Amino acid sequence: MTTSTQEFSWRFGGWLSEQSTTTAWTLLGAGALLGVAFTFWSYRSALAAVESRRRYFLCGLRATVWLTLLLILAAPTRVERTFENNPMRPLAVLVDRSASMTTPDNRQRRRLDDALLRWRTLEPAGRKNLGPPKYFAFADGFQGIATADTAATLPAMQTAFFSSLQRVLAEAPAGGWGGIVTLTDGLDTTGVLPSDGVENTSQMALAANTPLFFVPGRNHYAGGDFFSLREFTAPAQTPPHSTFRVEATFDGNHATARVIEVQFKIDGVARPVAPLKIEAGRRLATWSTEITAEKPGVIELEFRADLERARISVRVEPPPSNRILYFQGALDWGYRFLADIMKRDSAFVLTPVFNFPNPKALLPAGALEKMPTTSAELAGFDIVILANAAAAQFSAAQQTALSNWVRDGGILLFLTPDDDSTQGFAGSELEKMLPVVFLPPQAVPSRQTSLDVLAQFRARTGVGGGSADTPLLTPYKWEETPRVREIFADAAKQGGAVGTPVFSAFAHVARAKPGAEVLARHPDETAADGGHAILLALQRYGRGQSAVLTTDALWRWKLNQPSTDRGAELFWQNLFTWMSRDRQRGLRFDHAPLHVQTGQDVTLRLEADDGKKITVVAIRNPETQKINSNGKPTAEPLTEGQPAGAKRVFQWKPTIEGFWQITATDANGREARHWLSVDKSTVTGELSGMAPDETLMRTLASRTGGSILEKDPPATWLEVRSAAELLAERREPLWHRGWVFGMLLGLYSVELLLRRKWHLL
Questions:
Q1: What is the pLDDT of residue 108?
Q2: For residue 677, is it within any domain?
Q3: Domain check: are 541 and 393 in the same one?
Q4: pLDDT at residue number 163
Q5: C-alpha distances out from residue 56 to 18, 31, 753, Å
Q6: I need a surface site. Which of 14, 81, 518, 682 has the fewest CB within 10 A?
Q7: With 0-12 CB in 10 A as exposed, 13-18 as middle and 19+ as buried, what is 399?
Q8: What is the pLDDT of residues 533-584, one digit of tens each?
Q9: Last residue of a domain, which of 261, 295, 318?
Q10: Which positions ≥6 away from 390 have C-beta within 8 Å?
Q11: Same domain, 280 and 369
């Protein structure tokens, strides 16, 4: 919520502006006394005799003019300030009281005891700076409690981890919580997919402006001996003549060390692999290998370890093109520059949308007349670039469509070097999915004069005696992070004449959002949050990604490079390729389970590029099952349920143990396969001895601007918070009025006329 206040102040001008307030008033007071005294002395010593009444009236006129001039030097000003109220945002503390947190180990220590011990050292800092925390407990249910040590009356045999976090977020006060601290082991045993839980929870936290913090509970409890395959992963698709990695992750607990034989087959042919060595105790073990894909087709991979078995299919085919929708809000050289780069690489297909002032203007071939208004219309694109866009150019429906499209896996790049453009989107639907917070519109925006523009043009081009060098081109200052090295291996060379992009103009933003990754900053300019101004930032939003580039499109960088240099071209190709690395296409299973129990309802989620009919069947032991009269193994059809967002959902309840092949076929005959084991019992539930999932907690914390808490409170808890933050200030000079100067001129004219009439001139 914003509020405005008005006050009256004196803004001394001229040489008085360099003096203190006391000195300035003293000098003005002395000048006033001397001026009034001189006025009375001059009329008292006039050559012509004037009666007292007339002399006093003329003295009053002259003194009024003199005092008014002195007041103008004091510059009376009305100051209007706009504030954003920052009410105190308390912490919410969520305590996990499920069985896995309250079961003691061999030393009679619970995971909850470990988490509470550390929370007691952290709680005073949170209480001092954010106010008294509000406590909640969860397990198989959810309830409010008085303190972290208060016993909760909840069934403890399951952990509703994600739903409890989302419920606390939904109950956030105005402005959100100062943070949510969860004392937990990070396990959710309600059947929610970790990927879905992380995406939905982090999205809610970002929308509520609430960082998530975690105090992990640890102990030595491991349960009985077991060995299970947790994950078996490989890319769904890889290009020909490439190498990809296959990886298996195992979870287990063993009283003594074990050596487990591993079998691995590629298209039915065994490949010799080393056995898996498992140490005693509770362990996570991994196994991986590299596979070379040569010709287009399908590679079938089969893996066995102990009683665990898994299979996976990898399609080998050329990658589809990255389809880019380029919205050009205001015409500049950026579009032609990027279009030329994309045309040189067949992996990119560019479709422009121009915002011509003349609606009857002839569009270039392949261009769209307007920006799509639904996410379905955007589904045909992988990347959307909004270049030099203004908020007035987008309807609410178009912004909502973009938001939904990114949430479902799209990639958005917001590109503009203009402050007016970014400020126009402050508080908009579009800003919610971007990695930065825009500055609000300024009351009196600063604008360049024509002389400023001419001077910059001469400096860049050398026309009119200016230098043709690049003093106005500024290099990026790359952040020293693994992400920068991963995306821009060449561009990250600090100080490199070729690898470091340079730009001319940039837009100011307020700050990066929690969970955003800032890749590049301005080397000199500072931002509103005190750090260097942000030039390039990325952030996940739902299943997609968004990026903000606050500079120009770097076309001036290209003009200042040798014609043979490809630095600018590599920059854009690396950025677009990396951002779209996770955007898969075609028919595929989404995080399907590897183990299920007989009689258990199984939910399988499928992703497809279109809404056409999909048939899903399950075949038990397809290699050994007898062939029916149609020459195919007997298949059990799966029932399609209500879609979950962009996913198609199929239900199945296996009644027979075995190794089942699930095959999905779309209307074009394209197939996706998944294999899973059906057993009478599986290692599940609170007392299985599963280790704390600190990776999941760290992921949630990093995406929302929080952290894992050990012994020190986060720096954000120690900041001194003011009740209100100044957003804008507008000054209105009260003396700068025509009637003030008219009054002075009138008073002085009256004095001259009266002096002439009374024969003093």
A1: 87
A2: yes
A3: yes
A4: 92
A5: 36, 20, 16
A6: 14
A7: buried
A8: 999 999 888 778 899 999 888 877 777 777 777 777 778 877 887 777 666 6
A9: 318
A10: 329, 330, 420, 421, 424
A11: no
Read off the tokens for 89: 């945002």
Q: What's the pLDDT at 490?
A: 44
Q: Which two tokens stand for residue 499?
A: 């690898």
Q: Are residues 126 and 200 in the same domain?
A: yes
Burial of 346 (C-beta count, 10 Å sphere; 0-12/13-18/19+) = exposed
Residue 750 phi/psi, 5-degree rounding, is -60, -40
- Residue type (1 letter), 282: R
Q: Radius of gyration of the chain from Cα atoms?
A: 35
Q: What span, in angstroms and rounded, lies between the C-alpha atoms of 23 and 42?
A: 28
Show the domain range for 263.
226-318
Closest CA to 682 of 755, 596, 601: 596
Mean pLDDT of the chain: 80
**Cα three-residue angle 658-661-665, rounded to 5 degrees:** 155
In the chain, pLDDT over 70 holds for what percent of residues? 84
Q: How many CB atoms lie within 10 A of CB 165?
A: 26
DSSP 20-79: -HHHHHHHHHHHHHHHHHHHHHHHHT-SS---HHHHHHHHHHHHHHHHHHHHHHH-EEEE
Q: Does residue 187 lie within any of the structural domains?
A: yes
**100-125 residues labelled b (16+ CB within 10 A) or e (exposed):** bbbbeeeeeebbbebbbebbeebbee
Q: Decide which of 79 and 286 is more confident.
A: 286
Q: Which residue has the higher pLDDT, 279 or 610?
A: 279
Checking 266-270 for CB contacts under 8 A at 24+ apart, the result is: 266/291, 266/299, 266/300, 266/301, 267/299, 267/300, 268/300, 268/302
Please name every residue paired with 478 in a beta bridge, in sequence order, or none if there are none: 520
CA distances from 367 to 150, 336, 349, 361, 373 (A): 64, 13, 12, 12, 16
Does the pLDDT of residue 126 top 50, yes or no?
Answer: yes
Token code pair at residue 612: 């056409």
Based on the domain organization, do 213 and 262 belong to the same domain? no
pLDDT band at 182, cuts 50/70/90?
Answer: very high
Do residue 540 and residue 657 come from a single domain? no
Number of domains into which the chain is organized:
5
CATH of the domain at 356: 3.40.50.880
Mean pLDDT, residues 311-329 taken together:
82
Is the pTM higher than 0.70? The answer reads no
Identify the DSSP state of 695. H
For residue 316, what are the β-bridge partners?
A: 238, 297
In a domain, 271, yes or no: yes
Residue 267, judged by CB atoms within 10 A of its CB (0-12, 13-18, 19+), counts as exposed
Catalogue the E-assigned strands of 258-307. 258-260, 262-266, 269-271, 276-278, 281-293, 297-305
| 676 and 589 both lie in a single domain | yes
